[in-house]
Design brief:
The chain is α+β, with helices and mostly antiparallel strands. It is built from nine helices and 26 strands. Strands 1-22-19-24-17-16-15 form a seven-stranded antiparallel sheet, with no helix packed on it. Strands 2-3-4-11-6-9-14 form a seven-stranded antiparallel sheet, with no helix packed on it. Strands 5, 7, 8, 10, 12 and 13 form a six-stranded antiparallel sheet that branches. The chain is elongated and about 85 Å long. The two termini are 32 Å apart. The site of one manganese (II) ion has 6 residues, from loops.
Amino acid sequence: MENDSNKDQLSRRGFLGVGSAALAAVAGGLAVSSTLAQEGQQAGNGRADRSDPGPANSGLDPQNPDSAWPPPTDSKSLVPTFKYPFSFANKRTYEGGWSREVTVRELPVSKTLAGVNMRLTAGGVRELHWHTADEWAIVLYGTARITAIDRDGKSFVADTKKNDLWYFPSGIPHSIQGLGPDGTEFMLVFDDGDFSESDTVLLSDSMAHLPPEVLSKNFGVAEAALKNLPKRELFIFQAAVPGPLEADQKAAAGARGKASSDFAFRTMDMPPTKRTKGGEVRIVDSTTFKAATNIAMAMVTVHPGGLRELHWHPNADEWQYYITGKARMTVVSTGNRARTMDFQAGDVGYVEKTLLHYIENTGNTDLVFLEMFKTSVYQDISLSEWLAHTPPELVMAHLNIDRATLDAIPRDELVVVPG
Ligand code: MN
Ligand code: MN
């Protein structure tokens, strides 16, 4: 739909208008409805059959009404799934908590980002480790203590609560531990769809695979003192709830002092980036959270009946996690293809770079979800804003609308449109 020379025009910061490249992209998207109308005529204009006498999953069908009976604007050309519920994910359970993940293995379209959902009891530890991907996280429940060292070898220890974020760049060793009274649950997002929490470098595993005499020499201690090192990985294990934060910070810092980089971010200390009658959005990327160099977040709240307006992202795929409420999303793909799917708390959604989409609150409570991107700076382009900042005669000639209708389209991006 777009050629390479036009990509530069598209890669502008969100909330701005765009050039003619995207005109072609969305004109293609809008062509879906006329193609469908033709298909309908060819089929004799009959109403779509809605009988289903065969076996049905009576639990899942009502959760997925737009898959059971797609809206007539969806294409008959098939679009691969862009939804995976964490309910289906393999769970690894331990005494100190559990872990489950949605990667490109579970959701083939999710090539750029992977998500790991983890629970740690009070005192439960995700053991000291590091990995090749960057790790972004949001606390979903409870409180957790995180530790790391920075590239200068300086210590970082912090306590985090619901909606706080952390970010550990690749190769930075770290740990997570649940605090009282009831531990924590959080979502980790990695900048590699192929990432797996099973493929990290663990402290326990590393020690078990090194000759004891080498460890003895390396640490300058007697071999006998290391005889009880774990023989296999711990991954998640139960330990005592740690003491006061200040004591841990002081002990870990030693004479060298604390890390200058802050690997944590307090999301709710920041005012919403944009608020309307329909809801609000908080955008956190490297411009607000310096450590988050390669993963950006938009946390979106949509009130009942509201709509995360039609838009696309010129610079990155979007990985979604639904925290509360119910939604439906249509993704208009290339080649006259479009599909609508339904989402609820615990589901992962995915939208490839540049594809037009909206997210509508279909429930009667607030919808809260995350839009995650593998990028240092968040970008989006609003369909309304673009149409309102294109020569009016040109837009009217495309859409067969009158001037009053065009003038009613919002000139500034709302992000969340009221119901
Ligand atoms: Mn990690
Ligand atoms: Mn989006």
